[in-house]
Amino acid sequence: MPWIDKDKCIGCKICVKECPVNAISMRKGKAEIDMEKCIRCGKCHEVCPQEAVRHDSEKIPLEVEENIKKTKELMKNFDSKEEKQAFLERMIKHFNKEIKVAEKTINEIKKWEVENG
Ligand code: SF4
Ligand code: SF4
User: Is residue 88 within 8 Å of 100, Cβ to Cβ?
Assistant: First the structure.
């Protein structure tokens, strides 16, 4: 999913005009994407002269950092070594579940692409 690097955006509004579903608006001189409206067409990424529309994959390190931070915060709720260890195992299960959801979703989409190709 696309996102705007506010440091790079110069507020030219080209993406606003090009978005087919009016998902982009301006806030304080910078473009902003309404993810509820965005249909992931990639047009904004193509037309931005500043390369301010970035790909989701660039957020992976940030999301990992957030997950680690959240896990450390939640771990503070447990006192004993055993409780902390059990909690960590539950978190690992949770993230493993996320992997499985993504894998199964990708497999279903791939099948769908073949059927409609
Ligand atoms: S096209 Fe790029 S620089 Fe122009 S408003 Fe959109 S994101 Fe900002
Ligand atoms: S990806 Fe397409 S629909 Fe989404 S904000 Fe960009 S131009 Fe609009």
Answer: no
Is the CB of 26 within 6 Å of ligand 1? Answer: no
How would you classify residue 29: left for phi > 0, otherwise alpha for psi between -120 and 50, otherwise beta?
Answer: left
pLDDT tens-digit readout, 77-100: 999 999 999 999 999 999 999 999
19 ligand 1 Cβ < 6 A: no
Does the predicted model carry a pTM greater than 0.85?
no
In terms of Cβ atoms closer than 10 Å to its own Cβ (0-12, 13-18, 19+), residue 19 is buried
**For ligand 1, mutation pick of 18, 26, 27, 50 (most atoms within 8 Å of CB):** 50
Helices marked H in 19-80 — which ranges?
A: 43-47, 60-75
